[in-house]
Amino acid sequence: MATIGEDARAGLERVVSMRIAFVARAWITRANVLFRGRGYTAAQRAHLYVLASKPKGLTQAELAAILRISEASLSRRIKLSIEEGLVSRHPFCGDGRANLIQLEPKGLDALNASDRVAREDRTRLLAGVTDEELAITAKVLKLLTDRIPQPPERSDA
Question: Can you give the residue ranges of the HTH marR-type domain (predicted)?
Fold first, then answer.
């Protein structure tokens, strides 16, 4: 797998990086097709997952940082989710500019319903992969997630 000037490890690293990029795109595309009939995309579910693990809620800035997206991108998702009754926005004590975003029961119901579909799809895709292989994959992906810095905010300079 090595090319000119590339040792075996460098070749494997290149293959891994290319496969991660391919799988990421394919996984999101597949999820979007699965959920399109239910009226939302995989990206529209991501903030619901995070909020489900934080019952007291998060500020929009905290949520954007966890999701590694801009506050502007998240703002559009939050607005739609509020209109659908999936989340709510409340003034944050101590900072008049910040709002606390919380998951509503309807949002948890929607997340649970969509998660059944996602779980069935993951089971099909990961059939034959051992628990040990999944654990190693999860460990490597977490390491990469931690090492890849968040993209900087856009600069017009």
Answer: 13-146
